[in-house]
Amino acid sequence: MTKTYETLWDRFLNRLPASAANDAIRTLKRGGTFKDVDFFTLKEAEQRVDDYRYNAKQAIVTYKAWKLKKAVRGLFGVFDDREGTHLRAHARAMTSIYLDARRDHADLTHLLMRSVSDDAAANGNPSKEGGRHDT
Questions:
Q1: Which pTM does this prediction carry?
Q2: CA torsion through residues 19, 24, 26, 27, sign
Q3: 21-37 per-position pLDDT tens digit
Q4: 61 CB-side CA count, 13 A
Q5: Gap between the Cα atoms of 73 and 75, Å rounded
Q6: Mind giving me the DSSP string for 18-69?
């Protein structure tokens, strides 16, 4: 069985419209170093992941409350079933968004760490333009 791995760029291209995906990829690749994904970008992504986690949890709590309410009163069964279908779909969508955002955040973190570790000055090998000056 072959496992396939969807990269951050693949997810952009699969989830977003083509122009938005290309803009996002171009923005992240523009400098080619850690300047693309800096601490603030990562912090903003982390905040979005936390927001999506909260929304997913709230959607699940709402769905569970509806399920309990339905069990208690079965008078309007047809309407409750439709409401439940909607709430379940909403909970699934919010959870899916959260999981995608969490995966993207992990990939951004990996890009930042890799670009910092690939940076010559960060490894103690200063370039001619800057870095450590021993006199």
A1: 0.49
A2: positive
A3: 888 777 777 655 445 55
A4: 6
A5: 6
A6: HHHHHHHHHHHHSSSSTTSS-HHHHHHHHHHHHHHHHHHHHHHHHHHHHHHH
